[in-house]
Amino acid sequence: MSAVPCSGGYPVESPSQSRSSWMYLPPELRLMIMGKVAHQKFPGWESCATINREWQDVIEKENYKKLKLDVSDLDDLDVMVPHHKRHLVKHIFFQIDLPRDQSACCARWNPPPSNTSKIVSQAIMKLFTALSTWDKGNLTLELNVNSLSNSEHWFKPLYFSNDRTEGDDGRKVNDRNHGWVNGQQTRPAPEEAVRRMFRPIKLDKSFEREPLPKVICATKFVIRRQLRRCLSPAGISAMLEALPLLEHMSYEPWALHETASQDRRRDHVAALRHAMLQKLSKTVTSLVVFQDSRKFYKVLQQRQQNGGPKPPTINSVAIGDALGDIFARKSLGLKHLAVSFMVDAKDVLRHCKPAYTWPQLKTVALTSQLLREDASLNPDSQGRIEDLLCRAAALAKRMPELDTFVLWNGAKGDACAFIYRVKGSKASITWRGTWDLEMSSKVVEAWNSVALTRSWREIEIYQERIESDVNCVGDAIHHLKLPCRVVEPASLWQMRREGNLVRNGTK
C-alpha cells in the first residue's frame, strides 16, 4: 500500500498499515501533517479519517470551515451539515446564479429580465429560512449574485466569483472578437454591455409583506465588489434587520452610474441612511465600507460621445452632508471604522459634534480628495490638508482607545496616506506616498497632543516615498501598507489584476 503524500517530506500511512509508527510521531508533527493533508485534499485523504479520532476531527474542521452554496444546495443543507456539525461551519459563501441574457452577444441591448428581483429575493428568503434554525454562533455570511453572461463575452478577465488572495491565476484571455489579446484589452467594451453588467437589482418591495426570518448564527456579513449588480439599499436593510447579532459588516458597493438622476441619488442615500442607522445592529463594532467605481478601471471607463447627453448636475454638497452624518453618528458605537470613497473624510469629520465621544474606537480609516495632488505645487491645497489633519487630531483626543488613524487616497499614478499609530509606548505619524507632504509644526503639535493624552512620549515623525508603479487604486492600497483593513483581501487581489489589464490605453 502506498502512503498519502504530504508536503514536508513525511508520509502518512494508510489505514491498512501499522498505526503504531504514526502514534510515535510527536503530537505537533502529527497535527502539522494532518492539517496539510486536510487543506490540500490529496487523493485518498478521506481514508485517513479512519486511522483515529484525531484525523477525523482535523479533516472535518477543514471540510466544514467554509461552504460554498447555491440555491439548490439549500434543499439538502440539513443533510450536508447535520445539527451536531453546524458549529464547525465558520463561513458560508452563498451565490445566486442568474439566467444568461437571451441575446446573441452581450453587446446588444435588451431590457433586463423582469424576474431578476424575484429570483434574488426568493433565494435570499430561502437562505435565511434555512439558517434561521441554526443556533447562535460565529458565522461569516457572504452573499454574491452572478450571471455567467458577465464572463462569456466582453468581460472574460474580470472576477465575479473568486476567493483568491495571493498568487497569479495565470489567465491570459485571447478573444479578438471581444477586444482581448494575450490578456490585454485592445478594444473597449460597448457602453451598453458595461451598463448591463452593473444593472441594479431592486428589492424595495420584496420583503415588506413577508419579512426575512431572524438569523442568529451570523456575526459577520460580507458583500464584496465582485457583486457588481448593486442590491438596492432597501434590500440591504431587510437583510440587516434579520441579522440581529452582527458584529462586523464588510460592504463593497459600486458607485452609481454617472448618468443616475439627482432623484435616484437622493433616494439611494436616504435608503442607505435607513439601513445603516436604523437596521444595522447595535452589536456591530466593526464597519468596513469600500465604494468601488468604474473610474478606477480603464477597462470599464465610459467612452466619451461627442454631442451626447451630458450627465445630470449632482448636488454633491447635499449628498456629502447626508453621508457624512451617517458615518459620524454610526462611529459612536464602533471599535473599527473604515469608509473609502463613498464619502470624503472632511464630511465625516465635519458632522462629528462637540458632544461626541468615542469610548471604544480603536481604528479609523477615511479617504479624502484633498490628498489627490502634490501639495507642494499648490499652496492652497497645503493649507486645506493641514486644516484636515488638525481637525482629525482634535477629534482623536476624544477617542481614548485610539491606536490607528488613517487619512488616505489612491488612484492611477497616485497614492498617499497620513498614518497615526500607537505601538507599545511609542506614538508616530507617518506620511507615505508618491509625493511628499511637509509636516508643519501646527500638524505635529496637534498630533503630539493626541499622543500625550495617553501618556506616550513625544511623537515620532516619518516620511516614506513610494517609488513603485501605481496603475490602479488596488496598487495604491498595496504600496501604502495601510495598518488596518479597508477592503477584503480577495477584493484587493481582484482590484490589482483588473486595474492592470489596460496600461497603455486602448486602440
Task: Label this structure with key terms.
single chain; 31% helix; 3 domains; alpha/beta; 16% strand
Protein described:
- The protein has helices at residues 20-24, 27-40, 53-65, 77-80, 116-131, 191-197, 233-241, 262-279, 316-330, 345-350, 379-396, 441-452, 473-480, 489-499; strands at 66-69, 91-98, 139-147, 180-181, 184-185, 218-223, 248-251, 286-290, 336-340, 363-367, 404-411, 414-423, 426-433, 460-465.
- The protein is 31% helix and 16% strand.
- It is α/β, with parallel strands linked by helices and 507 residues long.
- Helix 2 (27-40) packs across helix 3 and helix 13 packs across helix 14 (489-499).
- It is built from 14 helices and 14 strands.
- The strands form two sheets. The protein has a twelve-stranded mixed sheet with strand order 1-2-3-6-7-8-9-10-11-12-13-14, with helices on both faces. A two-stranded antiparallel sheet has the order 4-5.
- It has three domains: 1-62, no CATH class; 70-284, no CATH class; 288-302 and 314-507, no CATH class.
